[in-house]
Design goal:
The protein has 204 residues and is of the alpha+beta class. The protein has a domain of 139 residues. The chain is built from 5 helices and 13 strands. The protein has a 7-stranded antiparallel sheet. A hairpin with a 2-residue loop joins strand 4 and strand 5. The termini are far apart. The N terminus is likely disordered.
Length: 204
């Protein structure tokens, strides 16, 4: 009975472990550019069509951090012992503030925005008191304490950190690159002289 108890103890050996994969979509290092928030008001003021929007360069205002963890449990035999590994696979996608992106599609007040690496996120224009400026905010479901849930490439992620504060911005210079034309018309003089007889006939 004594040896049997020792054998049972030797095969039950629990190990906790975790693996982590992190992907960062970095903002390029370039000269300082003046960005301004992209809003529904701006869109209407400038009468921006979908064709124009698709050609605009957009940027993120805050870091977007997407986190995903999947529990795992593996077992193996080492030196005659049963090793049970418990842990989780973690993956994290970080989109830095100022990262360039483009609009691929617009459905109502929702913009499908793509980043390098085939990552696509939704930015929307919720019409509520907290968004009086009409910004296009990073969109997720089930927001609670600034943590939301999104589905990307068929996988579910938690949006954490400053993700809830992120909205779309554009190059201010890109919209200011316009030309003003002003033309002042001068009076036009009669090219031929009017005879006195013609004037009298006109008066009579």
């Amino acid at each position: 009975m004594k040896y049997y108890a020792v054998f049972i103890f030797s095969i039950i050996f629990l190990v906790g472990c975790a693996s982590k994969e992190e992907v960062q979509v970095q903002a390029p290092i370039e000269e300082e550019v003046v960005h301004q928030p992209y809003s529904l008001k701006l869109m209407k003021e400038l009468n921006l069509t979908d064709e124009f929007i698709y050609k605009l360069q957009f940027y993120t205002s805050h870091d977007i951090v997407l986190y995903r963890s999947v529990p795992k449990k593996n077992s193996k035999i080492v030196d005659g012992k049963l090793i049970i590994e418990k842990g989780e696979d973690r993956s994290e996608i970080v989109i830095k503030a100022g990262t360039p992106c483009v609009v691929e599609d617009r459905i109502g007040n929702r913009l499908l925005v793509s980043f390098e690496g085939n990552y696509e996120l939704i930015f929307s224009n919720p019409r509520n008191k907290s968004n009086q400026d009409g910004l296009f905010l990073f969109s997720a479901t089930k927001w609670k304490n600034d943590i939301g849930i999104i589905t990307m490439n068929g996988l579910s992620y938690q949006a954490i950190g400053t993700s809830a504060k992120s909205y779309l911005m554009i190059d201010k210079e890109e919209l200011d690159d316009s030309s003003n034309q002003s033309l002042v018309l001068e009076g036009k003089m009669v090219e031929r002289p009017i005879e006195v007889n013609e004037v009298n006939e006109t008066v009579n």
